[in-house]
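User: For documentation purposes, I need each entry recorded in a consistent format: the amino acid sequence on its own, followed directly by the corresponding structure tokens. There are two entries in this batch. Please keep commentary to a minimum and don't merge the entries.

Assistant: Recorded as requested. Entry 1:
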Amino acid sequence: MANVSVYNMEGNEVGTIDLNDAVFGVEVNEHLVHMAVVQQLANNRQGTQKAKTRSEVSGGGKKPWRQKGTGHARQGSTRAPQWTGGGVVFAPVPRDYSFKLNKKEKRAALKSALTSKVQDNKLVVVDELKFDEIKTKNFKNVMNNLKVEKGLVILADNDENVVMSARNLAEIDTTLTNQINVYDIMKAKTVVLTKDAVAKIEEVYA
């Protein structure tokens, strides 16, 4: 089992914790991690882009000039692609970019992402995150104590004081254990977990 230090909100080490190898010590599958990230980005695409082809633009019903004898190249319509106001060649149409990833593949990708953070020493465990009031400065001080600049904070429960205090920090995101995903974990420079969050993740994914 991987053994990592546990810190308090002041940034002092207060103990250690053994991480379950079934979640935080698996063999990293880079292909599944890549597929999970691609899937999330693809599923977020709206796919609503649209342009008109020459059959959809209005006008152009009459041949602009006769076929021969004018000195111009022959033209059949003023709405052909080479004309201003003409249709677009191979115009984009609305489509669904999403694709499916099996549940086992998703779980394996998530475990690989968490394991990679442990291996890179980019996973920080805190004993708790508690604030008496909503104040961004307090949350920023805690992140400075933990030496976290750009990170993802994973909470076990939805603590409004913590979430709202972090909301104005552009480099810090917060999420719950039941909402974690591979893309957010890989995007974060450092992943910060509370001890309760570690226990919940191990309970679900071990």
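Entry 2:
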Amino acid sequence: MIRPTLILQMNLDESVYSDEVVAEIKRSYSYVAPAVVQSHETGDAAPENVMRFLVKIHRPYWRSSEEGADELWNEVMRKWLKNMVYKVSSTMVAYNRQRRLRFESQLVFDWLEVEFSDLTLSMRLNADCSLEEHGAVELAERVRTLVNDGVLEGEIACVRVPSRASYEAQLAAVEAARAEEAAAQVAAEAEEAAEEPAEDAEAVEAAEATEGAEGGAGAEGEATEAEEAQDAEPQPEPEPVNFDIDTTVWGIEYADGTVREFDSSKDEFVA
């Protein structure tokens, strides 16, 4: 049976790269495929971590014009890609779940890239590193069809879904909406507190006097100890918050560094 060979190439930002992380990654992904882990400098760009599939198969499968390519794609590559995306996505999610339970920072991969014979397909991962395998296969199928139909032509190095500009705009909108929601919640709580009836002044004074008589200093010390104990107890990282990523606009990145945006709903480039 014809079966592709997979190598996982992980490119980590230097801020999260260490010998311990490399060893842990290789253990965690050993059941999927061999892993090569390297680091890169961030520079002025935002730090990113990339998970890449290096697909090795010594038969044509991408260009329909080559004999047997369509059969190999339909009968082997689609099923294999679906299985590999599921395995790797599940491992990434489980890996970070274990790190949260150990009160360790999560290792977030931003993009899952699949290096096909002619180009690389780069797909944005959710905040928890998940990616729906059916959607990934359908996307790869769509890109392959557009290339073979001549809609996407030229020396394309990477098809990025969504484009960087599209994703950044979506993320900014989501963050602004969440900030507005949080501000509205704070305002509502303040308004609710202001509407509560004021406590009887005499009752407050009596309570304060009683506390003082029973040893306010001791109570204060106990409260301080409780607060310190709570602060000392490690807290797990919160669950990452996903949002529905709109994958309509793609970034077509050419070998010469040119980037054009492509509207996949219309199968045409954005002017």
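Summary note for entry 2:
The first helix runs from residue 19 to 29.
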